[in-house]
Amino acid sequence: MNEPHGFKEALAVFHDTASTVPAYKDFLKKNKINPKNIKTLNDFHSLPLMDKANYLRFYPYEDLLPHRTIPPIISMSSGSSGQPFYWPRGFEQEEAGGKLHEIIFRDIFNIGTQHTLVIICFSMGTWIAGAFTASSCRYVAQKGYNLTIVTPGIEKEDTLAILRDFAPKFERVILAGYPPFLMDIITEAHNREIKIKRLHINLLLAGENFSEMWRKTIHGLTGIKDSLTGSVSIYGTADADMCGHESPLTIFIRKQADRNHAFAKDFFGDSSYIPTLVHYHPEVKFFEKVDGELLFTAKSGIPLVRYNIKDQGQLYEFSDVQKLLEAHGYGDDVKKQGLDRWKFPMLTLAGRKDVSVTFYALNVYPENIKAGLEDKLVSGFLTGKFIAQTKSLNHEKDQQLIIMAELARDIHPTKGRTKLLKEVIFQHLVKLNSEYRKLHASIGERALPHIELIAFGDPIFQVKKSKHRWIQR
Length: 473
Description:
By secondary structure, the chain is an alpha/beta fold. It folds into 2 domains: about 90-350, ANL, N-terminal domain (Rossmann fold, 3-Layer(aba) Sandwich), CATH 3.40.50.12780; about 355-460, 2-Layer Sandwich (GMP Synthetase, Chain A, domain 3). Helices cover about 35% and strands about 20% of the residues. The protein has 16 helices and 19 strands. It has helices at about 5-20, 20-30, 40-45, 50-55, 90-110, 130-140, 155-165, 180-190, 210-220, 250-260, 260-270, 320-325, 330-335, 365-375, 415-430, 435-445, and strands spanning about 75, 85-90, 115-120, 145-150, 170-175, 200-205, 230-235, 240-245, 275-280, 285-290, 295-300, 305-310, 315, 345-350, 355-360, 360-365, 380-395, 400-405, 450-455. The mean pLDDT is about 90.
């Protein structure tokens, strides 16, 4: 078996972890693994998978660290399980993030020597995104780029003031943040007549998947003309910082998949929406796929070997991507536009069961509902934010899918709007989610969503920490 790119580095991480991390030494001993016997890819595949339950929360915290030494920087996970985790990282991880941000700024945004302002709108608290983005941008600035960094975090008024009073002093602006929060900022900038389209803006996004329709909308609001280089989404986690990023090629593929169902099915499988698609750098994060879930090995603050982050997805070598593009007639377009320069392997991120709403035992993903809210029939009176939940009825015999949607500014709820949104969301659910389609055929009107229109600015839709919760349990 040929060794894939990045395996040599992953094997080195394994041996280093096995010799310096007390918890991993015990983990291997309990699984009857002798580290000296792990030499080949087949040997590596015999190693036990680690996750939060069987490793990170099982062992004392200090035992997870090389030589029981806590690295200099700490971030917290969001604690979706109810208990936050303290993720350490060192300067080596910060530098690796800086190098990946340099690729984005230099090769996609093409900032060159232009004086560029980076406005970081990720939370600047204990969450990783804000602090890590700031340190990565600092690395880029120290490499000689004409970069200035400002960190309003999720303070909306501060960000709007920067866009109005300070950003016009720069040739370029990179607005970095969580997609729904940036949409809030840009929409409010228009309401206040801030001349945002006069700023040469690029968007650096992270935190969740979004559709190409959403990208088109936010590009239009910010005056971005190049659909392939105007914005880049990053795949990052508290567990291991930056894992991957979009490129003009990955965005091109998603856009074609949006238009071509056959291509979408061949590339993304039977997904009920177009998943996130990013490049990864296997010498930094070595990915594998087991039972539909992604594993990675990385020299993180807590070294992770075959760590199951519980993200579902696919892995593609560049040669696999080329074959699919050629098979569907996109090969020439890719070459003409120079997109074949992006030869890094790719991964897709599909839905996680823990971020979907369960309705009659099927999973309804946020993206299924977002598609309805982005429909032109209703998008004009909505912000795009919603919260979905299920409610038990008739002594637990039946369930109701409830969707609370935020109205746009100065829009009032009416029976007509409620009925229209219900019909539009239903049509998209039937179209996108085969399980829902079967459910509706079985139980009829009981499968229809219940819609509640909520006034603009209601506190339940405000981003208070790091992310908006689309699903309420």
